[in-house]
Amino acid sequence: MPTFQAFYVSENEDKTFSRQIIERSTDDLPAGEVLIRVKYSSLNYKDALSSSGNRGVTRNYPHTPGIDAAGIVEESNSDELSVGEQVIVTGFDLGMNTAGGFGQYIRVPAKWVVKLPRGLRLKESMIFGTAGLTAALCIDKLLQTGLTPDKGKVIVTGATGGVGTMAVMILAKLGFAVVGVTGKPEGEAFLLNLGAKEVVSREAVNDQSGKPMLKGIYAGCVDTVGGNILATILKSMQYNGVVSLCGLVQSPELPTTVFPFILRGVSMFGIDSSECDIEWRKKMWKNLAKKWKPEGIQSITRTVGLKGLDKEIRKILKGGQMGRVVVRL
Ligand SMILES: NC(=O)c1ccc[n+]([C@@H]2O[C@H](COP(=O)([O-])OP(=O)(O)OC[C@H]3O[C@@H](n4cnc5c(N)ncnc54)[C@H](OP(=O)(O)O)[C@@H]3O)[C@@H](O)[C@H]2O)c1
Questions:
Q1: Is 224 touching ligand 1 by the criterion CB < 6 Å?
Q2: Residue 231 pLDDT more than 70?
Q3: Ligand 1 centre distance from Cα of residue 317 (Å)
Q4: Residue 88 binned pLDDT confidence (cut-offs 50, 70, 90)
Q5: Is the predicted pLDDT of residue 257 greater than 90, yes or no?
Q6: What is the mean pLDDT of the chain?
Q7: Ligand 1 touching residue 225 (CB < 6 A)
Q8: Which atom of ligand 1 is nearest to the CA of 324?
Q9: Ligand 1 atom having least distance to the Cα of 229
Q10: Which of 201, 214, 272, 293 has its CA at a distance of 20 to 30 angstroms from the CA of residue 121?
Q11: How far is the CA of 160 from the centre of ligand 1 (A)?
């Protein structure tokens, strides 16, 4: 059986964690119907947590993280997937407790696998990765409620991060007036360049007044940060405003009241890209391949090999990433 290179996180005797690149055998991979030669992966916040020994993401170490993988089917016991087919796997248990996309091979259940849609290259699929899929799911939820560009501005938090960047670009492509929230001084020019109409600082949406409601400004929101920023935005939604939330980079707490919901008819939807329905996923991948595909996704992407990952992991843990990091395997 072939050996391959994999990024490997192990626990030391003193309970700290080490990251290295090792040689593994495909015999070491879990049982599954499809063996995939991974060509590209991508770096997400969750990968950085798994790479740092976060037991909320990965219970057992040693482990190969990587919640995203795009590659070519090398062995298949599924009638749906043929050898040589180009495929994408994101979420489910990949990279959490199943050896993930930071290795040159993965073996997974067939039901986790999505065929690469026409219009998308393998590398492009990983520029999107879980971040792009999550942004697409958040936006689709907003659209399902009837949100249209004429209803008003859509605010995106954590806007220079992976999910945020993707949400800004897709919303701008769909004709929405996007307001990006960023904590980075260099974020303003970056976001305006991606198509945002306005950029505000994190402080501007971190209300400490204690008021139950604020002026209604936004028709929609994609939130990746939670905490008091999300609470402030809830108070700042227009009548019938709609929020999709997916992240907790500021805080998992949500210090809010019922007022935005009962006084302004605000709705809020949670998005989980890792376990969501496979048909919804396939539909979103088709959108990303075609009508939602923003121009210039290459321009927000840096590509690294396994050796370059450690530095990028440290940066994302500090909230310092802008755009997307693709991993070439
Ligand atoms: N539910 C799901 O299916 C799903 C899927 C993917 C990701 N997520 C979650 O979504 C979040 C974002 O993921 P990501 O991969 O996009 O991460 P990321 O690339 O690190 O982006 C997060 C961004 O949040 C902002 N930020 C950082 N620290 C902050 C703080 N203390 N307060 C406010 N904003 C802060 C930064 O952007 P600025 O500097 O521009 O403010 C940062 O770039 C994470 O919590 C992740 O776990 C959930």
A1: yes
A2: yes
A3: 10
A4: very high
A5: yes
A6: 96
A7: yes
A8: 19
A9: 33
A10: 272
A11: 9
Q: What is the mean pLDDT of residues 37-57?
A: 96
For the stretch 132-178, pLDDT in tens is 999 999 999 999 999 999 999 999 999 999 999 999 999 999 999 99
Peptide bond into 62 cis (omega under 30): yes
* Furthest C-alpha separation in the chain: 64
Q: Which of 45, 168, 188, 275 to mutate to test the pocket of ligand 1 (most atoms within 8 A of CB)?
A: 45
CA of 319 to the centre of ligand 1 (A): 7
Residue 33 in tokens:
């119907």
Nearest ligand 1 atom, CA 276: 3
Q: 182 CB under 6 A from ligand 1?
A: yes
Domains of the chain: 3-116+297-328 (3.90.180.10), 131-270 (3.40.50.720)
Ligand 1 neighbour 131 (Cβ under 6 A): yes
Question: Which residue's alpha carbon is nearest to atom 10 within ligand 1?
Answer: 247
CA of 162 to the centre of ligand 1 (A): 7
- pTM (whole model) above 0.90: yes
Residue 1: pLDDT band by 50, 70, 90 thresholds?
Answer: low
Task: List Cβ neighbours of 323 (8 Å cut-off, separation of 6 or more).
Answer: 160, 162, 165, 190, 300, 301, 302
Neighbours of 78 (CB within 10 A): 14
Residue 261 tokens, joined: 């919901």
Q: How far apart are CA 47 and CA 50, in angstroms?
A: 5
